[in-house]
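sorry for the late reply, my laptop died twice this morning and i had to redo everyting from scratch. anyway the thing you sent over, i finally got around to it. pasting the sequence first so we're on the same page, its 148 residues, then the predicted structure underneath. double check i copied it right bc i was rushing
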Amino acid sequence: MTLKDRIANDLKEAMKAGDALRKDTLRSAISAFSYRRIDAGRELDESEQVDAIRKLVKQRSDSIAEYERGKRPDLVERERLEREILAAYLPAGKSEDELRAIVRAAIAPLEPAERKEGALMKRLMPALRADADGSVIRRLVLEELAAG
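ok and here's the structure:
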């Protein structure tokens, strides 16, 4: 069963249960799949479906940050709940300790002059994109560069 099929089944269950938040959130995921399918001109594979969900989770995280700055706790809570619903469909990523070890391994062979954030991010992101959010990887890179 594909990710899209799981979400469609869960959408039906949410509709039967009268869970409006879950229903709306899952509909947004189905809509994101449709837009991406149209852009691609073909059916999405599993990794593209996961990328679409990951993008929706990131959008919710960005919205949470904005709503917190705007002092809108009602909207912050809704976005958090939506993010949790969507994140449940993502595969488990690497732990922060595992990511930190990978970042350290990427930094170790570099000369001090080569230890730049941008270069490290270009090297790490293709390999870690499926395992963690880019902001987490960036934070770890900056922490490790500052440490030594």
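Helices lie at 3-17, 20-40, 46-69, 73-87, 96-107, 117-128, 134-147.
thats about all i looked at so far, will dig more tmrw
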